[in-house]
Predict the structure.
Amino acid sequence: MTTTTLRSSSADRRLPGGFSVGFLRMELRRLLRNRRTLLVTLIMPPVFFAIFGLQSDFREKSFGSGNMTGYVMVSLAVYGAMVATTSGGAMVAIERAQGWSRQLRLTPLRPIAYVATKVAVAMVLGLVSVSVVFAVGAVVGARLTLTAWVFCFLLAGVCSLVFAAFGLFLGYLFPSENVMQLLGPALAALSFGGGLFIPLHGWFGTVSGVLPTHGVATLVRMPFGDTSSSSIALAMLNIVVWTAFFAGGATMMFRRDTAR
């Protein structure tokens, strides 16, 4: 066991930024032990899908190359990934209150490696949430082409990157006693304002294009919707800009928080 530990530590030292595989495994175990987070992220999205997506006329009504049940399934999968990754990232507020972030500054772990680790762990939880919603959708009548099933699933998981960075940024921006109270209203406002649940038109639709949820929703629905190439390019730009903003902000806040 000692030899294994030494080999692992030696391998970690060779990774850039002080990135540690052992730290990544520990963060994964801590997240998966949080039963409250698991219940919210794994049960709530499928329940919402059952409530809003299983109307009989939705199964018969077409959307792109699929049906409306498929549209709702993809929307709720993105919402589940959004809740899972944001909650996972925002848990850093509790770690700050306990002094864990400052202890990490005594290790070779650099801020960018720390942010990357937290984002990766949050995205694992988001991918699990997407898997649950897609599994329920496959059983109850969501209809998409095979290509759309695969790419919608992958895009929902990958695009949750922006929400993981968002949660981490909020976790550094607000104290632990406030951040969890802000998450619910903030995610609901972003979901409806960004057109995640229903398409938006007119001036409201134009304004919603700047929200991160709009970019993710547009890109994830692309495999079975009728999205134009210009809107896809704007959606990708939206995701890149917001991810860079949130990740950069979290890195800066981590440095400032541990510099005292």
User: Anything to note?
Assistant: Confidence is low (pLDDT under 50) at residues 1-11. The first strand starts at residue 62 and ends at 63.
